[in-house]
Specification:
Shape: globular
Radius of gyration: 19 Å
CATH superfamily of the largest domain: P-loop containing nucleotide triphosphate hydrolases
Distance between the termini: 11 Å
Order of helices and strands: EHEEHHEHEEEHEEHEHEHEHHEH
Amino acid sequence: MCKIISVGNISLGGTGKTPFCIFLAEKLLNDGARVCILSRGYKGKIGLDTHIVHDGSNFLLNPSDAADEPFLIASKLKKACVITGKNRCKSFNTAKKVFNPDYVILDDGFQHRRMGRDIDIVLIDHSNPLSTGFIFPFGYLRERPKSLSKADIIVFTRAENCKVPEKVTKYISDKPVFFSNTKIDGFYLQGRMVDENFLNDSTFFLFSGIASNRNFFNMICNTNISVKGKKFYSDHHFYSERDFNSLIDKKKKSGADFFLTTEKDYVKLPEYMKEQTVCLQISLTIDNEKGFWDTLFDKL
């Protein structure tokens, strides 16, 4: 029987849901399971009806139609099925009918109460667990912190240590808690990993349009990479020809040799931009990984 794993948060963006969904799916796929990821497909040109982005073998939509996050997930998980749509129940029915998966991962599903799930994993930014403490539009929370009581597992992302921040202790005192972080897997130019000599001998102009542009910038600053300039856009930014022309002009004026961006942004670039853009690839690590998987399967 298909099991549904929801991955979500209570704040607006930037807690690392996409890398975490990839982390989950990779393990399940490696175990031989059939996995389908359901995404809302936010800011995809194709709209919010139900669409199959990837069937486990082939792409059925291009990145601009499918939206950046589901296309990135499908790019990283060659054997996973990826479906987008605002109506998650409809997407789930499509997944069952077409793919008969063993596991469905509901990306950004904590607030979608209409759709049942077997387990709720809630991600919290370790450095800023409850943001301002106010609900949008007065703050950056989607719902009140007490809603964390509905979670089955709490995972702190970008964890600087393995201590639960005092702000959230009272809300999750009875929950299994884990701590995760992101690590750099490598830098890629036109699909090939570049070496340290290339990085040391080149200069870069950074750009990105993600929820955590600052974290991307800080990650690069913690390396020996020489940054000549930067330009950041809002999350899920749709790049126009005007944007590309502006970026090329800024790179030229800065004297940088190459652009440097995230995987989420890279999948949206035309070929002439990819030829001059280095892509940062990251993955997620989690403390006590065995304990996490034991807890997950036990609750399932």
